[in-house]
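Q: Given only this backbone (71 positions), what sequence would you predict?
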């Protein structure tokens, strides 16, 4: 089993992946010395593109774009 505290809404960063309790077919585990080593899950930033909306105005009047002038 591999477990982590990270989930679908985790912030960007590194999270430990903890390995434990691997199950084997009956009798097989006695043939191995099992060592569990942790790993790392890296959550990278998502891409975000902001595009200014096109606008027009008459000469000398100017325009106010505000905070909705983009998509």
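A: Predicted residues:
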């Amino acid at each position: 089993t591999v477990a982590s505290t990270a989930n679908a809404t985790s912030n960007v960063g590194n999270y430990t992946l903890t390995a434990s309790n691997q199950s084997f077919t009956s009798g097989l585990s006695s043939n191995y010395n099992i060592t569990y080593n942790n790993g790392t899950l890296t959550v990278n930033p998502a891409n975000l593109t902001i595009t200014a909306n096109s606008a027009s105005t008459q000469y000398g009047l100017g325009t106010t774009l505000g905070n909705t002038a983009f998509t």
